């Protein structure tokens, strides 16, 4: 499938979905839309993902099968400046995917255009209607469960989960990925958007995905969301933690970040204290431990990145790495996962 991804004004640093699709998606990204960097190429900004031209608008995009809104601002609202591009995509009769809390299927204009041009709208953050409360069975599943947690939102939890899954597979381990957010769902083509579920059903939604996949895989890497100390998103984090009942946790952080992103009046607590907080809270329903750390060092040079990783690991008292920049060996060695027989 050929896709184009909208990321106006946010590419690449605040376009997690766009970057995730470029790095891990199964689809060919033929263009990224960003008025601020139009004329550049993706690799001018991110050298280690698949390349594509950056264009100003939908009129410059070649033939595609789907058009993706690749950014999700705090609150998940729709920016009206995006409307002409969505109109143009629907006018071509292509699918439009959105990870916003604003549902395109409830926008009268987009629904009309989709019907006129036989195009599909996919609101990725619309959860299934048959979710239930957790039954508390995840700890009894045969699969080993590893959950990524973090000091904040946007610390690389999905990235770490995906890198760990791929590295585990390279070692001959039968590993799967549990998508809990819009980017992971777009990459995998399935999943439940945990931050849109009814709060009573959050843990149950995670549990249901694990039960569904536990017979297929020996190890399941669960994509974490938010942070347990985040003033807005902590409820999502706790719901995933208790629904997954993970055997192990991998702690994610961005090098040098000291305040909560978007809530800069809130400091990030001591990382060692946060490790203990996750372990204590998780172990209230099933024994778990933080076995390793994943540090995002994308903004640092090579020498500074290695120093930051060493300091991060020492502060937490566990092995650490940057799973994108370096490798996953330290984490996988600590997890000591079993290979397929």
Written overview of the protein:
The protein is of the alpha/beta class. The chain folds into two domains: 2-123, 3-Layer(aba) Sandwich (Rossmann fold); 138-335, 3-Layer(aba) Sandwich (Rossmann fold), CATH 3.40.50. Helices cover 31% and strands 18% of the residues. It has helices spanning 16-24, 83-91, 108-116, 157-170, 182-188, 202-214, 234-244, 271-283, 302-316, 329-335; strands spanning 2-6, 28-33, 54-55, 66-69, 95-98, 121-123, 144-150, 175-178, 219-222, 248-254, 259-260, 263-267, 289-296, 320-321. The strands form three sheets. Strands 3-2-1-4-5-6 form a six-stranded parallel sheet, with helices on both faces. Strands 8-9-7-10-13-14 form a six-stranded parallel sheet, with helices on both faces. α1 runs parallel beside α5 (182-188), α2 runs parallel beside α3 and α6 (202-214) packs parallel to α7. The longest helix has 15 residues, at 302-316.
From the alpha carbons, calculate the radius of gyration and give it in angstroms: 20 Å
Spell out the helices and strands N to C. EHEEEHEHEEHEHHEHEEEHEHEH
- CATH fold descriptor of the largest domain: Rossmann fold
How many E strands? 14
Whole-number tally of structural domains: 2
The spatial strand order of the largest sheet comes to: 3-2-1-4-5-6
Assigned CATH superfamily of the largest domain: P-loop containing nucleotide triphosphate hydrolases
Estimate the helix proportion, in percent. Answer: 25-40%
What's the arrangement of secondary structure elements?
Layout: E1 2-6, H1 16-24, E2 28-33, E3 54-55, E4 66-69, H2 83-91, E5 95-98, H3 108-116, E6 121-123, E7 144-150, H4 157-170, E8 175-178, H5 182-188, H6 202-214, E9 219-222, H7 234-244, E10 248-254, E11 259-260, E12 263-267, H8 271-283, E13 289-296, H9 302-316, E14 320-321, H10 329-335
Parallel strand pairs: 1-2, 1-4, 2-3, 4-5, 5-6, 7-9, 7-10, 8-9, 10-13, 13-14
Antiparallel strand pairs: 11-12
Helix pairs in contact: 1-5, 2-3, 6-7
